[in-house]
Amino acid sequence: MRILVIEDEPKTAAYLKKGLEESGYSVEVANDGSHGLILAQEEDYDVIILDVMLPWMDGWTVVKTLRATRATPVLFLTARDDVNDRVRGLELGADDYLVKPFAFVELLARVRTLARRGPPRESELIRIGDLEMDINRRRVKRGTMRIDLTPREFSLLQLLARRHGEVLSRTQIASYVWDMNFDSDTNVVEVAIRRLRSKVDDNFPVKLIHTVRGVGYVLEIKEAA
């Protein structure tokens, strides 16, 4: 079983890695929020242990962004022990919250509980027409053809697929996929949609990703006129 530890304090990170590996887990460590988020989005982990106060990107932002695409169990491990902080962490999508200093045996028990729980099984597959997304394996197919996507393209397609039939604005897409608001003259979303279409639609007679002029984008199967 694999665990990702996102912790910037070297002694704490080393302590967690040593203790968890001695308990039979495979452990990877990220020392800042941005790197941790990339690993969490690109790799499959059974549990993520996440600090709140991190360089480059705080733990709140990490879990909020991650929850747009991944259901990996998250345990906040932080010195912030205010009740409002705990509530905020859980509302953003964390599964558990443990305050430093902590007893390692308690952390281990919580990790084991979260690992048994795992991601919700109902979210494993998304099927729309001949499009199939295997969320846990990060695989996409149309019919029998495998489609290779970058992590960002996968996140974008997953957002459109989960909300198929719903028109999403550029601002909504930017917020969910990049966790940022882009200026109106920035074409990052358009470029990402164009690249995704080239992989998902261009080689197939039935197009799935459509532009709603002046509004945004929608993934749906449209009946032929």
UniProtKB/TrEMBL annotation:
Residues 123-221 form the OmpR/PhoB-type domain. Keywords: Cadmium, DNA-binding, Phosphoprotein, Transcription, Transcription regulation, Two-component regulatory system, Zinc. CDD domains: REC_OmpR_CusR-like, trans_reg_C. Residues 123-221 bind DNA. The modification 4-aspartylphosphate is found at D51. Pfam families: Response_reg, Trans_reg_C. SMART domains: REC, Trans_reg_C. The keyword Cell cycle does not apply. Residues 2-115 form the Response regulatory domain. Gene3D superfamilies: 3.40.50.2300, 6.10.250.690, Winged helix-like DNA-binding domain superfamily/Winged helix DNA-binding domain. InterPro entries: CheY-like_superfamily, CusR-like, OmpR/PhoB-type_DNA-bd, Sig_transdc_resp-reg_receiver, WalR-like, WH-like_DNA-bd_sf. GO terms for molecular function: phosphorelay response regulator activity; transcription cis-regulatory region binding. GO terms for biological process: regulation of DNA-templated transcription. GO terms for cellular component: cytosol; protein-DNA complex. NCBIfam families: cztR_silR_copR. This is Two component heavy metal response transcriptional regulator, winged helix family. It comes from Paraburkholderia phymatum (strain DSM 17167 / CIP 108236 / LMG 21445 / STM815).
